[in-house]
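Hi P.,

Sorry for the delay on this. The queue was packed all week, but I finally got your sequence through. Input first:
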Amino acid sequence: MSLYPGIVSALGGLAVVAFLLALGLAFALSASDGRGWLRHALAGREGTPLALGLFVALVATGGSLYLSEIANLTPCELCWYQRIAMYPLVPLWGIALARRDFGAWRYGLPLSLAGLAISAYHVTIQWMPALDVVRCGVGAPCTARYVAVFGFVSIPTMAGAAFVFISMLFSLARLIEKEARMGGVT
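Then the structure:
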């Protein structure tokens, strides 16, 4: 019995949860009341965003490796570009967590935003192949959807959800760093 359907469904479910958490975090970061709530929720646990970022990057990296190396799905060219943006985030988050370095957002946020832009384009051409201006030259076609969890969560959708959540976690790390510099006052 194959574990593939369960693993892909779990990854799709995690992508939906990551996206919803990212939306909540974006709203919290955008309002002073939300930042106050975050401040209270993280009191004494400021390293949580770093650990959570490492977890998300590990799951995304592990999921992509599972899909290509165990499930034998050939990554398209855009999938490779998304991997190039995601894989370095694992050691970056790991080092940031080990050193409690909230300034890691300076290096990681550009990677996660680049990955998010690639994912957004990839999802767009999967739904509207006529908009494909890149024309993948190797591996699988970029417009193909090999996975459709819940009917809409494809592989680049999963990557995009991870990138948006990671971007919000980097934004939270930036806020924590800023408040630490200012002595806890926003």
